[in-house]
Hints:
Blueprint: H1 11-16, H2 24-60, H3 62-70, H4 74-90, H5 92-101, H6 108-117, H7 132-141, H8 145-174, H9 178-196, H10 198-208, H11 215-228, H12 233-260, H13 270-287, H14 295-307, H15 315-344
Helix pairs in contact: 2-3, 2-15, 4-12, 4-15, 5-6, 5-8, 5-12, 6-7, 6-15, 7-8, 8-9, 8-11, 8-12, 8-13, 9-10, 9-13, 12-13, 12-15, 13-14, 14-15
Amino acid sequence: xxxxxxxxxxxxxxxxxxxxxxxxxxxxxxxxxxxxxxxxxxxxxxxxxxxxxxxxxxxxxxxxxxxxxxxxxxxxxxxxxxxxxxxxxxxxxxxxxxxxxxxxxxxxxxxxxxxxxxxxxxxxxxxxxxxxxxxxxxxxxxxxxxxxxxxxxxxxxxxxxxxxxxxxxxxxxxxxxxxxxxxxxxxxxxxxxxxxxxxxxxxxxxxxxxxxxxxxxxxxxxxxxxxxxxxxxxxxxxxxxxxxxxxxxxxxxxxxxxxxxxxxxxxxxxxxxxxxxxxxxxxxxxxxxxxxxxxxxxxxxxxxxxxxxxxxxxxxxxxxxxxxxxxxxxxxxxxxxxxxxxxxxxxxxxxxx
Length: 353
C-alpha cells in the first residue's frame, strides 16, 4: 500500500476508506503536480540522452555520429511505434478481465481510456504510480479505491511475469547471463509476496496494531486483501496469455529500431534482441530509479555493443539505437498515456446511480 504515497498528503487516511476522493479541483491539482514530476523525469531523460550522445561524439567524433543519426530509415522507425502501440492494445483484454472479476461496472470505452491513462505513470519507480487509475475509476463509478487497487497490482505483476519469462527464456537461448537473470527475477518477486500472500500482512498487523496512527493503513490492508481474493488463478493465467505477446512486440520494436540504423540483424538474432530488451528493463526496475533512466540506457548501449559488434555496431551506433528506442518506449508511451489521463477527467462530473 505504501506504493501509492505521493499522490496526496495522506491518501490512506483521507481517501482510500471513503467512497469519494474529494473535489474535482483537488484531483486536478494533484494531477498537475504529477504532471510536473513527469516533466522533470522526462527532462532528466533528455539529459541522459545528451550524455550518451556526448560519449558517442567523444568516441567517434561529431561528423561520424551525425552520419549515424542521418542513416535512420524512417519507415522502420515508424514501424517500431506502430508495433509497440499494438503491444499495448493487446494487453487491454487482461485489464478488462480484472475489472470483470472485481465486479466493477464501467463502460468498455471508459475502461479503455482509463487503462491507457495508467501508462502516464510508467516512469514512476516500479510503475506503482499506475495506482492513479484507482482514483479515476472511483470518480466514474464511486467504487472504493481498495476495491480497484488489486487490478493495478495484478496488472503490474503480470507485466513483470511477462518480462521475467522473456528474459529467462531468451537468456537460455542466448546462453549468457542466465544466473544474473534468475537472481534479479527472484529479487523483483519479493514485493509481490507481501501483496499476494496475506500471512505477512497479518504478522505486521499484529505488531503494529497498538499504534493508533496506523489504523487507517491496517484497515485499508484488510479491504485490499478482501477484494484481492476475487482474482483467481485462472484470471492470472488468462492475463499472462496476453502479456507475453505484448512484451514480445515491445521487444520487436527494438528489433525494428536496430534495423532502422542499417544493422543487418535477422531472425537468428531475435532471441538476442529480446534478451537485450527485457534484461535491460529488469536491470533498471530492480534499482527503483524512476523510468529506469540511465540504468536501462546504459544496459542497452553495453549489450548492443557487446552482442552486435560483429555486425558493425560501434558505441556510436549503439548510442543512437538506444536514444531513438527510448524515445519510442518512454516518451511516446508517456505521450499517449497523459492524453488518455486528461481525457478521462471529462467523465468525472457525470452522475452515477
